[in-house]
Write a structure and sequence with these properties.
By secondary structure, the chain is α/β, with parallel strands linked by helices. 33% of the residues lie in helices and 25% in strands.
Length: 271
Amino acid sequence: MTITETIPTLSDTRGLVEITDVHKSFGTLHVLKGVSLTVEPGAVTAILGPSGSGKSTLLRTINHLEKVDSGYVAIDGNVVGYKKRGNTLHELREKEILKQRTEIGMVFQNFNLFGHLTALENVSEAPVVAQGKTKAEARRRGLELLGRVGLKDKADAYPRQLSGGQQQRVAIARALALDPKILLFDEPTSALDPELVNEVLDVIRELATSGTTLIIVTHEMGFARDVADTVVFMDQGQIVESGPPADIFANPQQQRTKSFFSKIIEPAFNI
């Protein structure tokens, strides 16, 4: 991949995300159309927009689950998935990409837990495999993380024995197990029954105060308003506008943003 942009230099920051002119197509469908976004270390960014706007695809380019067609994503000055040689980006080997991914935790819509492993085993497996931790170390850390999400008493339960909200909280603990610089959430409550949503959002609210960079694709407008430092509104593969929640919700500048919020935000939202 040939590049013309200036690649960022390495810095001492932890969790700085720089997305620069990213394009992504699936066949003839142009899903991301030159998206650029900077997320500062420790910041919480909520990405909103209608279905099909490219939100989840953008999230998946950050950890190279989706390869970009042009542009690049960098974390703390390191280009994700590629190595720069001259003016060209060459894709890294899978082993090197997997190492990069240990710094980027991701929580999916549908939990993606291993059904044959207990909650504790789901949380503690990656540190052993990816970081060479001893099983005792990983188990100790796993119990701490399950306690953090309120599920220490479910350590020996299998996913089928847990509610959807509990499974998602285990998935969050698993994402935290590698001590990532960045946590990505892809509509983490969309697969949950309404009464289980708040238990997951409460965990994410706590994480938002931890200093870890969070990027959250969500349809939970009140949550985004209360937790995010920056709200990004996307439509048709582009960022329409972004800014502090108070500005985006109360005084959006773009007509497309105004139209979107007018249809989904009820008067009781109290903006």
